[in-house]
Amino acid sequence: MLDSCPEHACLEWETRGVDLELRPITEDEHSAFDEAVATGFGDAAQMSDAGPMSMGVEQDRTLAVLDNGEIVATAGAFTFAMTVPGGAQVPTAGVTMVTVRPTHRRRGLLTAMMDRQLDDVAGIGEPLAALTASESLIYGRFGYGLATVRTTWELDTDFADFLTPADDDGRLRILGKSAAAAVVGPVYDAVARGRVGEVTRDAGWWLRVYDADRRGEWPSGTPKFFTVVHEDSAKRVDGFARYAIDQASTHGLAASILRVLEVQATDPAVEAVLWRYLFDVDLVQTVAVTDRPLDDPVRWRLVDPRRMRVTSTNDHVWLRIVDVHAAMTARTYGVEDALVIGLHDRFRPANSGSWLVEGARDGAACARTDREPDLVLDASDLGAIYLGGVDVTTLARAGRVEERTLGAVARGDRFFAQRPSPWCTTHF
């Protein structure tokens, strides 16, 4: 029977007379794991050499449920660090590739994997776990909270004039994928260190992004996307944008769509120059943008901001506090205060109880306490407010946070405040 599975899951397997095994995969199971992930997501096209194991999932961080030697459920984790308020980059498990085969649903497999995985995360000392969810209703019961939101918008280039001209003494260059892979990483690293919610990307991540040929999506030798970089007057790269163009025309007139994949810059003025370039590419009628923050400054650069059409607003990163003490002391806080948080953590009951968090702009302390709580909330709601992506007031009005001390909700707003809003540009 399974190691480290929740009692109710194991009991269900026992009553069904099924003997399942939960463990990391072995070296010779990479292909089987990839195929199981593809099956779980219903993506037959993914059954190729470009599966999860070739995309950087670490073997010792995989989990698989095997039924008579066949993989029927999967999970994995990337090892990275997330930037939290105050600028610390906190070790974080990037949970990924979570699937259950349709034939094995409703048997407790997901619960068992989540339990085992969080034990493993705690065991290696990562205070946080994060994921991007294929379905938003799945992970709240495991203590993950909606921590960052992303928007998708479009803008017709005829209406992309800026209030203030975007120019400087630098220059722009389009680079091939080999040259780009070598220079964009350091720019991203510098940006990520100052952006709450962003995660680290190792050298392997960039090599995989620029290895377009292996994906088989474009003819050999053809880049999947373009990379334009900005160089300052000393020829140092301090910004870049990745984009693709869907070529189209209407009645002989150019009507292409430029799809922005990523814009990163170490300075707002450089970012403005990159946006100006993207809006001015010839033969493009519409610029379509995904994965932008709620408080995107681009709108405020426009002469006519109404022309920016937000087409969707969706959850992105879901965050789980694994080690309460380590997580709460890793970040800083908007004002000097001390709040007692009454935490209910049904999936990891050892975290439950009252925690005194004393914080300020220069550091924090956190410890268990016998004091009565000022605020009472669930583990998923602590994950939601941790990066400052939602106000405590909003959650209280939604019935998710209980105020036990008069004024504690307003104090919580100031305490956990974060501007600009947390945002993650990385998919995992």
Tally of domains: 3
Can you identify the CATH superfamily of the largest domain? Gcn5-related N-acetyltransferase (GNAT)
What percentage of amino acids are in beta strands?
25-35%
Structural class: alpha+beta
**Number of helices, where a helix is a run of at least 4 consecutive DSSP H or I residues:** 11
What is the CATH topology descriptor of the largest domain? Aminopeptidase
Through-space gap between termini: 31 Å
| Helical coverage, percent range | 10-25%
- Integer-rounded radius of gyration: 23 Å
With strands numbered from the N-terminus, the spatial order across the biggest sheet is 1-2-3-4-5-16-6
What's the total number of strands?
21
Average pLDDT works out at 91
Q: How would you sum up the major sheet?
A: 7 strands, mixed
Produce the secondary structure layout.
Elements: H1 7-15, E1 20-23, H2 30-40, E2 63-67, E3 70-83, E4 89-100, H3 109-123, E5 128-132, E6 145-146, E7 149-156, E8 171-175, H4 177-193, H5 203-210, H6 212-215, E9 226-231, E10 237-246, E11 249-250, E12 253-254, E13 256-265, H7 268-279, E14 284-292, E15 309-315, E16 317-321, H8 324-330, E17 337-344, E18 353-360, E19 363-368, E20 375-378, H9 379-386, H10 392-397, E21 401-403, H11 408-416
Parallel strand pairs: 4-5, 13-14, 17-20
Antiparallel strand pairs: 1-2, 2-3, 3-4, 5-16, 6-16, 7-14, 7-15, 8-9, 9-10, 10-13, 11-12, 17-18, 18-19, 20-21
